[in-house]
Write a structure and sequence with these properties.
The chain is α+β, with helices and mostly antiparallel strands and 268 residues long. It has 2 domains: 2-15 and 230-266, no CATH class; 31-227, Immunoglobulin-like (Sandwich), CATH 2.60.40. Helices cover 17% and strands 37% of the residues. It has helices spanning 2-26, 230-250, and strands at residues 34-39, 62-64, 68-75, 81-88, 99-105, 118-124, 128-133, 140-141, 149-158, 161-173, 185-193, 198-202, 215-219, 253-256, 262-266. The strands form 2 sheets. Strands 1, 2, 3, 4, 5, 6, 7, 8, 9, 10, 11, 12 and 13 form a 13-stranded mixed β-sheet that branches. Strand 2 and strand 3 form a beta hairpin. Helix 1 (2-26) runs antiparallel to helix 2. The radius of gyration is 25 Å and the shape is globular.
Length: 268
């Protein structure tokens, strides 16, 4: 009986891990979407490429359909930085009107209108970066913040797609810059392909001028637990079923004879 109970508890534990992992990926914030910034485990080279096949495996991927995915990790060699990689799989042309866009709400306060703690990082034509600050009159350029960013983009293949596509890497100073980002902040990521007029964003359909529609970026001081991915948990669950089946087959059962009284011990 103890072995059966142990098997059941083991399976229930794995199921709870599976549920918890699913929630961590899909949990809804006030604006509808939340994601996690994990602690850096692999050094980053900001060159617009996966410098090695394992460079970004320490970041949890956030995907929008089959067109956009991005990951982020934070680090603190002295000051605190957050690093992003953004991949736009459906764009492999170079157009002056292409852009990358990241909207940041530094205290995750939301709002229906722009305020002074809202910022927009805008890279147009794969060459020109401008940082904007929000306010009652809209977005105002803020050149001083450009020095607090390191970025690069390129047309390249990656472990996520063998077909060359646009990849952006960006490093943002959080703790010692002119415009410090809180540990938890509002976030919107968008990419635009001028060739096809395709705009893809996270959260889907979020307006850059309405912070209430942006997602929430939380953080963890731990390294991304890659072994707790859905695939790994499913494999562990299968192993648990196999082990429990073995235990149940070996557990002795009490047979009952035609009179309903206990008979001899037998094994299934």
């Amino acid at each position: 009986m103890k072995k059966i109970l142990s098997a059941v508890l083991f399976i229930l534990l794995l199921c709870s891990i599976l549920i918890a992992n699913t929630i961590s990926v899909n949990a809804a914030a006030a604006s509808g979407y939340s994601r996690t910034d994990w602690f850096l485990d692999v050094a980053k080279t900001i060159d617009g490429n996966w410098t090695s096949s394992g460079e970004w495996i320490d970041g949890e991927p956030t995907m929008i359909g089959g067109n956009l995915t991005f990951r982020s990790v934070w680090e603190s060699p002295s000051d605190i930085y957050t690093n992003f990689i953004v991949e736009f799989f459906s764009d492999n042309t170079t157009d002056a009107g292409d852009y990358w866009e990241m909207c940041l709400d530094f205290d995750d306060g939301g709002g229906t209108a722009l305020a002074a703690d809202h910022y927009r990082i805008y890279i147009e034509g794969h060459s020109d970066l401008t940082v904007y600050r929000g306010g009652a009159t809209g977005w105002t350029p803020l050149p001083s913040a450009e020095d607090e960013l390191i970025w690069a983009n390129s047309l390249s293949a990656s472990p996520d797609s063998n077909t060359p596509h646009w990849i952006l890497e960006i490093n943002i100073l959080k703790s010692a810059g002119t415009n410090m980002i809180d540990a938890i902040f509002g976030l919107r990521v968008a990419v635009y392909d001028a060739n096809t007029t395709q705009l893809v964003s996270w959260p889907p359909g979020a307006d850059r001028d309405i912070p209430d529609q942006w997602g929430t970026q939380t953080y963890e001081s731990a390294v991304y637990p890659e072994f707790l991915t859905i695939t790994a948990v499913v494999l562990l669950s299968s192993a648990a079923v196999a082990v429990s089946f073995y235990w149940l087959r070996k557990h002795p059962k009490t047979a009952r004879n035609s009179t309903g009284k206990p008979g001899k011990i037998r094994y299934s």
